What does this fold into?
Amino acid sequence: MELLERFAAGDVDAFESLFRQYQGEVCGWILRIVRNRATAEDLTIETFWRMYRARARFDVTRGSCGGWLRRIATNVALDYLRSTKPAVELPENLPASAKPDVVHQSDLRIAIARAIEGLSPRVRTAVMLALIEEEPYEQIAQALGISLNAVKVRVFRGVRILRKELAKAGVHA
Amino acid sequence: MNERELDEMKRLLKEALPPLGEQELQRDLWPDMLRRLPERTVRVPWWDWVLLAAASLLIFFFPGVIPALLYHL
It folds into this structure.
């Protein structure tokens, strides 16, 4: 019996083989979304746990479980981002006097990090994966379970919000 | 928003948050995963049950074989 069939039938040894085969890939993918190694490791366990519980629904004829795992991992990461508040709350409107004309490099990084944290988890994930990690849009669409156009719309919206927030902080992109 | 503006945004974002790319896993996560899984139940093959039943019946109907069985154990 094939590995995936044995896994779908509840064979723990088959699950272990799949886990060892995909754990690095899954952890790396989640890390690119949450950007914290300890959190990524915890969420990797959660991803495989969800996979294990849903094994009966896995369609063996699809052949590979890499895409399925990435989809679960993305949902797990999104749930995590939704459940945690941004480390830095963005003020609604910065006073005009607080806008520096020239922003130092470290200030620039902080301003960008704050602007990204202010994005909604769905938009933030699309922006991070598309613009920072430069993952192919098709792969992002598959992982998020949305169309290619929807990914482009999310990235566009994210960039628009980021530009607005950065302009408030005196950075013009 | 044109390509140049998008590239500029990419540059700014990457300066603030450098891409992580493909990263090696630093430790095996399987031991952590095992703790999440329900306890493994030991599966006894059906043939072992047949042998056990046959031995039980043999002992029940022919108790005289017990010393012979013990001798061979």
